[in-house]
């Protein structure tokens, strides 16, 4: 509720002035003063704002005194936040006209400025200062001034100035009237000062609340799990909004020289500056294109304001209040700052233990003068962000070190595990080889001893007297047969050793394939009859010529037929098939030996061609050298051999097929068009 003033307040200093006033006042002058005071009180009581109240009082006084201008200025700096508040009034005709005469403080001497009372030196200075402030926008020349300082609570709180655009001699009644309303005007000026103080305090409280909220946000942000770039983005947005900036930037530096700390303090190191966080009140106007790396990065040495901030004292920002405040070196400011649209800027560096990490920039579209509290807040934000950056970098380095050590440990464990598995495999292989060695020695011992035993028995029988010629012939045949077996066994061992060492190249001959296959299979006729086996042939109608080593080819086919006869079921048929194929533009001869017998498991097929290895559970005697010798001879002839076991339905038997693949010609580089 507004307080209504009904009468003129009485003060001791006013009574003293009236007592010594030299003029005898007339009754109508007192009434005029009272009426004017009441009108001022009415304005004070009913004005909606302090600015409107001062303006209305200035107009009231200007009209009452019939002056060209009336100016009211507060003089209570501690209440108005260090700034004077002024209100002036001029008639409309002066506002509509223009004058080239400029107001000058040199005009304000006593012949021009008169005081309603006896002024002190301090009063004169106050009046001069108030005219300097209040008359800056006055559109008339100041030729004559009647002024009075107002007092409230024994303190000066303002000045009332009546201004004439022509020289004028102020009357005593005008001086009295101005003195009479001084106290009422003092109340108005005090009320304005108090209102401004309250508004200033409210604004200060709002600013403090924003700053406290910013500190709280940054504290919570520092405890979050956000990535450093996300955290910096949120931090610059909160800071720019709290400080009412139009745009905010977080810029981080990446040094090319890791030893830059050893450089002189004023020397600018080579560093790349990159915008990490950006916030704008009008994103469509001020956001930089992050896709354009040139606009979003710049070299520190190429930006004048960044160089200034880099070499500035710790905690001291570089401030550009407006375009006029730019220094010469800022003509090379990086495009990222967009100074043509945001001419006012505050740039403060982010640093930790003497290392400059980057910069925080706040920009405005209009001139701005930063208060100390705001600069302190920016400094605090920079300190928190610097600590967060260092903490994140440290944690990242620690995490990288932990990851590296963990990776090294994991690799070491993997290597140890592989070594363990490899060692385990070697142990198993050694165990298997020892087992094979024992089996081989046992088997070879039996196979070598068996012919020798038969030969010794035959010799004993021959030494006995009374043997008929038929008996002698029979024992000699046995002796020869067993000697041949012994020689063949030893020769097989020597041949296998020679093939493994690749001691001799093959000696190629040309043979007729059909005839050779039939000749070799004919030598098995007796064994086939004994076991009730048959042989079927699938040979080319036109016999093929094969360039190969005759001895090796014969031995391969003999061993395959021996193996087929040995492991075939009685009363079955052994199939011999020969074809010609062109594989990868090379003529090949494919020979297949197929028999029906006990199947070969997948596990057995992997080692069936290894030396001294025989199928598990097979009771048929043998050394295990046959198929190993076949494989070595096939490789000696640049061929390939494979085995396939296919179960026969509704039986426990399988069809076993050995496939021999040999080059048809010794010159393997010779190619022919593909044909059957």
UniProtKB/TrEMBL annotation:
Its EC number is 2.7.13.3. It holds the Pfam family HisKA. GO terms for molecular function: phosphorelay sensor kinase activity. Keywords: Kinase, Phosphoprotein, Transferase, Two-component regulatory system. It comes from Fischerella thermalis JSC-11. It comes from the Bacteria. PROSITE patterns: HIS_KIN. The keyword Phosphoprotein applies. PANTHER family: HYBRID SIGNAL TRANSDUCTION HISTIDINE KINASE C, TWO-COMPONENT HISTIDINE KINASE. The keyword Transferase applies. Coiled coil: none annotated. It catalyses: ATP + protein L-histidine = ADP + protein N-phospho-L-histidine. This is histidine kinase. It is an enzyme of class 2 (transferase).
């Amino acid at each position: 509720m507004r307080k209504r003033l009904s009468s003129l307040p009485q003060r001791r200093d006013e009574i003293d002035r009236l007592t010594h006033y030299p003029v005898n006042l007339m009754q109508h002058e007192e009434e005029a003063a009272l009426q004017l005071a009441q009108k001022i009180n009415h304005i004070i009581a009913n004005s909606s704002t302090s600015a409107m109240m001062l303006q209305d009082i200035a107009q009231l006084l200007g009209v009452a005194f019939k002056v060209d201008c009336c100016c009211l200025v507060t003089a209570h700096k501690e209440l108005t936040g260090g700034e004077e508040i002024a209100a002036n009034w001029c008639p409309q005709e002066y506002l509509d006209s223009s004058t080239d005469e400029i107001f000058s403080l040199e005009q304000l001497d006593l012949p021009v400025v008169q005081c309603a009372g006896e002024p002190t030196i301090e009063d004169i200075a106050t009046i001069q200062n108030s005219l300097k402030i209040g008359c800056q926008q006055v559109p008339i020349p100041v030729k004559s001034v009647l002024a009075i300082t107002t007092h409230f609570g024994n303190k000066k709180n303002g000045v009332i100035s009546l201004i004439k655009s022509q020289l004028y001699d102020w009357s005593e009644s005008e001086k009295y009237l101005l003195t009479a309303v001084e106290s009422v005007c003092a109340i108005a000026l005090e009320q304005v000062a108090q209102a401004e103080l309250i508004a200033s305090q409210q604004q200060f409280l709002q600013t403090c609340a924003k700053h406290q909220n910013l500190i709280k946000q940054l504290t919570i942000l520092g405890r979050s799990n956000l990535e450093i770039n996300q955290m910096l983005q949120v931090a610059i947005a909160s800071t720019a909004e709290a400080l009412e900036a139009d745009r905010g930037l977080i810029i981080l530096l990446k040094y090319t020289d890791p030893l830059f700390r050893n450089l002189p303090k004023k020397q600018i190191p080579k560093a790349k500056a990159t915008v990490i966080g950006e916030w704008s009140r009008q994103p469509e106007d001020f956001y930089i294109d992050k896709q354009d790396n040139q606009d979003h990065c710049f070299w520190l040495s190429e930006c004048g304001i960044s160089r200034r901030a880099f070499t500035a004292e710790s905690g001291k920002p570089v401030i550009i209040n407006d375009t006029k405040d730019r220094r010469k070196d800022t003509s090379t400011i990086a495009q990222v700052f967009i100074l043509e649209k945001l001419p006012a800027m505050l740039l403060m560096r982010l640093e930790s233990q003497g290392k400059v990490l980057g910069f925080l920039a706040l920009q405005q579209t209009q001139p701005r003068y930063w208060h100390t509290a705001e600069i302190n807040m920016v400094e605090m934000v920079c300190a928190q962000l610097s600590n967060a950056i260092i903490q994140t970098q440290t944690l990242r380095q620690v995490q990288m070190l932990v990851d590296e050590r963990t990776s090294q440990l994991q690799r070491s464990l993997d290597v140890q595990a592989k070594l363990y598995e490899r060692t385990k495999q070697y142990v198993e292989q050694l165990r298997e080889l020892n087992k094979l060695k024992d089996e081989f020695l046992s088997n070879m011992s039996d196979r070598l001893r068996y012919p020798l035993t038969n030969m010794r028995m035959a010799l004993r029988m021959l030494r006995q007297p009374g043997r008929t010629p038929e008996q002698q012939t029979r024992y000699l045949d046995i002796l020869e047969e067993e000697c041949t077996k012994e020689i063949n066994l030893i020769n097989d061992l020597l041949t296998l050793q020679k093939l493994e060492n690749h001691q001799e190249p093959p000696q190629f001959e040309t043979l007729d394939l059909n005839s050779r296959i039939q000749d070799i299979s004919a030598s098995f006729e007796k064994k086939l009859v004994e076991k009730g086996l048959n042989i079927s042939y699938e040979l080319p109608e036109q016999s093929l010529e094969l360039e190969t080593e005759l001895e090796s080819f014969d031995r391969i086919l003999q061993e395959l037929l021996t193996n087929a006869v040995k492991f075939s079921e009685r009363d079955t048929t052994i199939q011999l098939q020969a074809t010609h194929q062109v594989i990868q533009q090379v003529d090949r001869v494919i020979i297949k030996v197929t028999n029906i017998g006990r199947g070969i498991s997948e596990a057995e097929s992997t080692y069936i061609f290894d030396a001294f290895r025989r199928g598990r559970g097979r009771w048929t005697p043998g050394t295990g050298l046959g198929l190993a010798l076949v494989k070595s001879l096939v490789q000696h002839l640049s061929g390939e051999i494979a085995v396939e076991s296919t179960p026969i339905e509704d039986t426990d038997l399988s069809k076993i097929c050995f496939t021999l693949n040999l080059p048809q010609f010794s010159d393997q580089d010779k190619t022919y068009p593909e044909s059957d």
